[in-house]
Each structure stands twice: as structure tokens, then as C-alpha cells.
Amino acid sequence: PIFFGRGTSKLTGGKLKEFGCKKVLVIFDKGIKAAGIVDKILDNIKASGIETVLFDKVEPDPPDYIVNEAGALGLAEKVDGLVGIGGGSSMDTAKGARILLTFPAPINRYFGRGDAEPLDERNMKPVIVIPTTAGTGSEATPGGIITDTEKHVKWPIICSVSMAIIDPELTVGLPSGITASTGFDALCHAAEALTSKAHNRISEVLAKEAITLIARNLPVACREGSNIEAREGMSLAATLAGMSLRGPFGGIPHDIGTLLGARYGIPHGTAVGCLLAESMNFIAPVIADK
User: Fold this and answer.
1) Which residue, of 65, 86, 159, 163, has the fewest CB within 10 Å?
2) Collapsed DSSP state (helix, strand, coil) of residue 272
3) What is the largest CA-CA distance in the chain?
4) What is d(CA 156, CA 148) in angstroms, rounded to the nearest whole number?
């Protein structure tokens, strides 16, 4: 289930209670905590009578050792649920930690590289993700991306979320640079889904709507960080763009951009965004209508 709209983050505690949670691992980065976003959600969770265990060590392009540490903390504290608050890195860390609450560490055992161990999600603890950026779409996909720090390669993991709560108010005030970078990640998702050889009618509808929303709202959100209408449009676009990849695969921008990010530490949205125009030029002759 996805709950979307202004103020929906206030549903967090009640939804965790519906899952039967009594003690949850809350995963975020220090920047989100400093912005005051985490405390509001923690207060909401505690008001529902649920105990919280905090993990604030999330890093960009989440490294395998961080995911392993989050999972170990959750096991040690005997939590019965998780909440991921932040951008794609926080949500993907939460997905990885969710795996490790049920299956043996390290997370590297579950990288999608052909020899990954199969997972049965039926016995996993529930995880709610709450995005604070508008870009990765990780709240709407069953996968995550984790960095193999030994090989300097990013690998996918497969782990669904139990629920997504998308509150555009949490993105108000996001710096313009991060707004632009994450916004271009969403644009790449939609453009790549639309031009994929594995496209379908549903993904096309979602991708086209996401592109329209981004064109209309991203420039405004970058110029006017407190414009809630633009922020809401971008939050919706990011989720729709993530959904548009359910079926199609990412294309050239993500294939090359993911490598650039893993090798050189370039922010993901920046890496894929820099490649988008040239990639579209390259494939245009064979799909001119798209």
C-alpha cells in the first residue's frame, strides 16, 4: 500500500501498530535528523506506544558494511519492524536490514548476480519507508542498490516494502542542488522506461505523466524550495517514475551512471542525469516517435 499526500507521515505510528509492531528499528542519516524531520516521526511512533531503536549511520550509495551493521543492531535489539526515513540510501539500507533480520548476514550473500540465495519474504519483519526526497522511487519498487565496497560495484537486492508513506511536506526546504539531482534521477527512470524495449502500455502511461510533472515542477521546486505545490508534484512524479520501471528495465543512463557512482562517488542523480541527453540522442534514430 502507498499513502500519498500532505501530512501522511502522521499515519506512521498507527500503521506500525496495525502491523503489530512493538519495537522498531528507525533508519536515517544524520542530515535528515539535523533537519528536524526524524524527530517529528519518532514522536508520532512513540505516541502509538511503540519503542524505537535508532540507526543514523546511513551513507550515500549504501555500503555493504553499513547495511550489515544496521541488520546486526536490529537483531541485537530484537525489533519486530523497521522504518526507513530519507532518500534512496535510507530506504535501500532499510530494505537490506530487513533481509538480515530474517536471513544470515552478510548482505553480500543476496546480491542479484546469478548466485544470490533465494529469499522467502513471508517471514520477514514489516518495513515502512518514508521518502524525504523526490527522485529514487525506491518506495515504489521491490529492489534496492547496495555497494560492494571490496569490488567497488553496485549490486541490486530484491526486497519489497510493506508500506510506503509519501508526505511532500517532508521535502520542503530540500537544497536546490539535491532537488535537481534527485529530480533528474526520476526523469531518467521515466525516460528509460518509456524508451525501453521491454516497455508496456501501463509503464508508458506512468512514465509520460511523470515526465510531464517533472517538466512542470522541477524548475519551480529548485527556485522556490518552499513551494508545496511543486514539491507535491515532484513527490508524485518520483513515485510514478519508480512504478514505470516495473516491467521495463533501466537504460544507458543507469547502466553507465551506476558504474560512475560506484567508482567515483558521484551522486546517483547527477551521474545518470549527465548522461540522459546524449543517451536519448544515441537511441533516437530507432525510436524517433518516443
Assistant:
1) 65
2) helix
3) 59
4) 10
**Rg of the chain (C-alpha set):** 18
Tell me the per-residue pLDDT of 89-104, one tens digit each, with 9 for 90 and over: 999 999 999 999 999 9
Q: Are 183 and 269 in contact (CB under 8 A)?
A: yes
CA–CA gap between residue 24 and residue 122 (Å, rounded)? 18
Strands of 95-137, DSSP E: 127-131
Q: E-assigned strands of 2-93?
A: 2-4, 23-27, 51-55, 81-86
Q: What share of the chain is helix, strand, coil (3-state, %, to 5)?
A: 55, 15, 30
Give the DSSP per-residue string, 34-52: HTTHHHHHHHHHHHTT-EE
Dihedral sign of CA atoms 239, 54, 267, 117 in order: negative
SS3 (DSSP) at 82 = strand
Predicted TM-score (pTM) of the model is 0.94
Place of cell 499515519: 11
CA neighbor of 134 nearest in space, from 211, 237, 210, 36: 237
* CA pair distance 123, 73, nearest whole angstrom: 19
DSSP state for residue 6 in the 8-state scheme: T
Q: What is the pLDDT of residues 134-174, one digit of tens each?
A: 999 999 998 899 999 998 888 999 998 999 999 999 999 89
- Using DSSP's 3-state secondary structure scheme, residue 75 falls into helix
